[in-house]
Structures are given as C-alpha cells and as structure tokens.
C-alpha cells in the first residue's frame, strides 16, 4: 500500500486529539466507560466541526473499506458498514479510523490535491515501509481511532484494576466499548506500554 507522508504525530498528541474530540462531542464518554456513538460522531459532529459529510455508498472497490475524498469533503463508507455499527466492532473501528483521517489529515490531503493533479499517483507516492511510523497516516488513524473508541482514562483505570494486561481484560474492554477483541487487545497493550512499562 502506498500512502503520502503526513506531519509527525506522537502518541501523546493523538491521545490529546481524542480527548479534545470526546470533550466536545460528549463529555459523558469520559465519565464512565461506554461505547462511543460513532454514527452521531460522523453524521453530526464531523460536518459541524470540519465541514465534511458522510457519503454512504452501496459498494466500494474490493478491498476498500472506506476513504476520505478531500475534493468533495466527504467520508465515503459502505452502507453495510454503517448498518453494522451497533453490533460489529470492526465496522465501528473502520469508521473511527476514517474519521481520524478527517480530523488529523484533512488539510494535508487538501494541500496535496493542490500540489499534484488529482489523478496523480504521486499523491500516494511512498510505500508504508519507507515512512517512519509517526509520519504514517494509517498508523496515526489507527491509533486515534482506538483512542476515540476506548478513552485512555478508562483503559488506565481498567489496567490498574486488573493489575495489568490480560486476555480477560481485552475481552471485557471489547464488550464494554463494543469493539473487536483485536482492537481492544491493541489498545490495552499500547496504553500499558505508554503508562506502565
């Protein structure tokens, strides 16, 4: 996969970005662990905050789960993904990931569309393996997506209570935040590494 290199973002910067979004969108998400209403986030908060709109599509190209179109300021997501938001953790993470691109990369995407012809392959000019992780837009969107769905404050509390990471805690997080076990495990381990190692 080839992507454009983005401005550097640290884990702490992305955690702060998630906190800012959650405080603006619904402070209650920071008071007790609960699932983020990702549908409301992209249908209402995103247009009000960034001027971007959700564009549900019946189908996308094979292998494409969603994308951001800086030319039309739209977040394009398959209808089936949106219909699964209440029950499918992977769908919830996909939408959170794409929202994270809008929040963090919308200006850079717009600049690159002006720098290069809109059909230019040069816009996506580097292999991800050639980009340091903190300048990789996919890593940033994955990290921020996880931070939005599973706020750091709650994950820290859960890690304290559980006395560290475990498969049981990951399962509990997946249930509480309505995310996949994989997403919960990645988030649990990332917060553990940042705060306890």
Automatic annotation (TrEMBL):
InterPro entries for the chain: IrrE_HExxH, Rad_response_metalloprotease
Domain IrrE N-terminal-like span(s) in chain numbering: 77-188
Superkingdom as given in the UniProt entry: Bacteria
Coiled coil: none
Signal peptide feature range: none
Name the UniProt record assigns to this protein: IrrE N-terminal-like domain-containing protein
Source species of the chain: Bdellovibrio bacteriovorus
